[in-house]
């Protein structure tokens, strides 16, 4: 049986591993820490590219069916693991801006329904189809599904930078001198990609994002709110969070108090009732930034049995189902 090793245990790597296992491959997934403990669990989980008319159309092509994919996946996860990733269609309210024409052209081109609404006498654009999911609960469910599917999980295993001069990788050494053998390898390490494949050092880089969460309260938010490059959303369990920053500071997890204060003020502007609610916690995650905001979903141009599924920047959760489909198709085209 063909053995495939997926390197990186976030949502992109996890869904890639599950997809490949469903196709009949023997799959191992490994992570330098624990499955889903880095940027995937730190994300907001909005299943829509915020302001997609600002991006290349190919970005929306990777995102456009994520709501249906996650709705179906959520049912599978509940049935097969008992874990609910809290998928819900909440819709999104966007504070009206001056990009009405761009938005209108985009919505017409993509047959996407956008309505105009007023809330507290403020004008909004309403996106009724926008959905969300809880990334931390999604990752817990995915890990349990991988165990059920007998996907081998290797945690706390850091691979050394690839140095092989052969065009085919037979063994990939780790920092503890373990050799990872496979017929095919998939790099899905997000912001850390350049650390194991140095060709990507200048193409995929960490962008720190800080998030905040408010103390438990009685506020009910029927929709996601977005405006001034910030958002507020409420999980199924009532938790309200807001985000996020975009900081090019490498892998520094140092807390930026000014950024936290800015996020809080922006959240209060979007949802004035939050002015009376204290913050409960805040956290950071590292997005895999790219120069064109486009991920690398490709066969490596030197190593014959190496594939890249990384660099999804702000939309790793949203792009993960389609990215997993595409990387699986590429591997199968190799005659695997």
Short recap of the structure:
It contains 9 helices and 18 strands.
For the biggest β-sheet, the strand order reads 5-6-4-13-14-15-12-16
Task: Profile the largest sheet.
Answer: 8 strands, mixed
Mean pLDDT: 94
Structural class: alpha/beta
Tally of domains: 1
Question: Which parts are unreliable, with pLDDT below 50 for 5 consecutive residues or more?
Answer: none
Alpha-carbon distance between the termini? Answer: 10 Å
Please identify, by name, the CATH architecture: 3-Layer(bba) Sandwich
Order of helices and strands: EHEHHHEEHEEEHEEEEHEEEEHEEEH
What is the radius of gyration computed over CA atoms, rounded to a whole number of angstroms? Answer: 20 Å
Beta content comes to: 25-35%
Give the helix proportion (percent range): 25-40%
CATH superfamily: FAD/NAD(P)-binding domain
What is the number of E strands? Answer: 18
Q: How large is the count of helical segments?
A: 9
Question: Can you put this structure into words, describing what you see?
Answer:
The chain has a single domain (3-333), classed as FAD/NAD(P)-binding domain (3-Layer(bba) Sandwich), CATH 3.50.50.60. The model has no long low-confidence stretch (mean pLDDT 94). A hairpin with a 2-residue loop joins strand 13 (224-227) and strand 14. It is 29% helix and 26% strand. It is built from nine helices and 18 strands. Helix 4 crosses helix 9. The chain is of the alpha/beta class. The strands form four sheets. The protein has an eight-stranded mixed sheet with strand order 5-6-4-13-14-15-12-16. Strands 8-2-1-11-18-17 form a six-stranded mixed sheet, covered by helices on one side. Strands 3-7 form a two-stranded antiparallel ribbon.
